[in-house]
Amino acid sequence: HSENPMQYLQRGLADPHRAAVFDCASDDRWTYEQLFDRTKSVAARLIRAAGWRQGNRVGLFLQRRMESAALLLGIFGAGGIAVPLSVRGTAREIAHQITEAGITHLILPNESALRQVLNDAVPQATEHRLKLELLETSAILDDMSPVPPLDLVPEAPALILYTSGTTGPPKGVVHTNASLMTQVEVLYQSWEWRAE
User: Fold this and answer.
1) Mean pLDDT over residues 114-121, rounded?
2) What does each C-alpha distance from 29 to 25, 26, 95, 113, 150 come to in angstroms?
3) Which residues, at least 6 apart from 115, have a Cβ–Cβ distance to it below 8 Å?
4) Number of H helices, E strands in the chain
5) CA–CA gap between residue 139 and residue 124 (Å, rounded)
6) CA 81/CA 158 separation, integer angstroms
7) Rounded-to-integer distance, Cα 31 and Cα 21, Å
8) CA separation for the pair 42, 184 (Å, rounded)
9) Is 184 exposed, middle or buried (0-12, 13-18, 19+ CB in 10 A)?
10) How far is it, in rounded angstroms, from Cα 94 to Cα 85?
11) What is the pLDDT of residues 120-170, one digit of tens each?
12) Which are the contacts of 15, defined by CB distance < 8 A and separation ≥ 6?
């Protein structure tokens, strides 16, 4: 597959005022234009973060919120590798993921319970001489700096998902830009999604 997630999102800008993501709990929605703007904000902030290089691994908690779509796509747009952390994970499990994945940048959640888990996990992870750049979710979503054009290679890693760890410590499974786009296309065709 030759497209990357940012190109796929840009296709939605053909109808910028069409709803792109929904928050079922509050009935809020973002249009493709709003999602693209917030995605660019995340990418811009990451690119300006200390020590940023394409291929850096970014840890984040993916929650059932519209912001999660912008955070994930923004990481892809900055050429980073997203590493979702379990919202139910213990400090020890999160420290393992941070260390094993080589996370260099961590997007801090707004929720105090998740922050407490991170407060306990980060010292455990940094014992392994890992330096973390911490970024606030609210500041990332509102950064309006321009995003330089990046060459996002289809074969480049984009996402590391962790297994359940039933036979030992969880292991990271790497997905490329191309494999993510193939998965989206398969779902699109299988579920017969249509623009409405």
Assistant:
1) 85
2) 11, 9, 34, 26, 28
3) 108, 109
4) 7, 8
5) 26
6) 4
7) 7
8) 22
9) middle
10) 7
11) 888 877 766 667 788 888 888 887 788 877 778 888 999 999 987 778 778
12) 32, 195
